[in-house]
Specification:
The chain is mainly beta. It has two domains: about 100 residues, no CATH class; about 110 residues, no CATH class. The protein is built from two helices and 17 strands. The strands form three sheets. Strands 16-11-12-13-14-15-17 form a seven-stranded antiparallel β-sheet, with no helix packed on it. The protein is globular and about 65 Å long.
Amino acid sequence: MTTDVRPAQSSTDDAFAAEWADWHARREEELRAPHGWLSLTALHWLDETPAEYPPLPGEWSATPETGVTLSARAEDGVRLDGTLVSGTVRVAPADNAAGALATVGDLRVEIIRRGRSHALRVRDPQAATRTGFTGVPAYAPDPAWVVAGTLTPLPEPREITVDAVVAGLHHRRTAVGTVRFTAAGQEHTLTALAGPDDASLVLHFRDATNGVTTAPNARTLTIPAADADGRVTIDFNRAVNLPCAFTDFATCPLPPAENRLPIAVEAGERNPR
């Protein structure tokens, strides 16, 4: 009889795996939120002709110049930013920003602008993608995918334009510098984007796993901001899918064209579909 003998895992590795598991559990709980990304059920692109979009009541239309127009009766129960709609109202959401919010019962409707187009994004807690959610597949956490890097900041943050998963759409992102690091025996450079706050950076990237074991389009990774010497720590175990990996009703940005790694980053979230 042959016994499979494996080296004992160190307490450091145990702690690393436990910390990752705790982070992964929190990530899945965020996805399970009643009106999170898993709750999307529709994305309706509007034009100048008033139209109905069941089960949403009222008539909706939009033009690039005036924004979105909604005509509804009080008994329809549509609330816009908390105020009951009775008659005709107009909404002018900012491009590439969080939209105005309409509610109808348990449904939440984001009124968004992307370029010169407007859309209604419907969130329903009873969406099959949410009620049937069983978790996000991921590679086993591996400390080898925690790498050191160096940030070279731009003299000034620069707005860049990237494509989107929806053909013809574009997103504006803010580039703040480049991050250089070594992984799989090669040196790589990624454009770093502004994070959600001053204490973080975003690396939005493609690699050789996309469309094989990970989502086809890209993944994204939020890392702590550089220290005073420009040093950063990149933990690819925390690379996550964008909403478009879970739903067809998202308008996710694609990475900057240069953010394509020639290696297979076998760490972080895998393709949930």
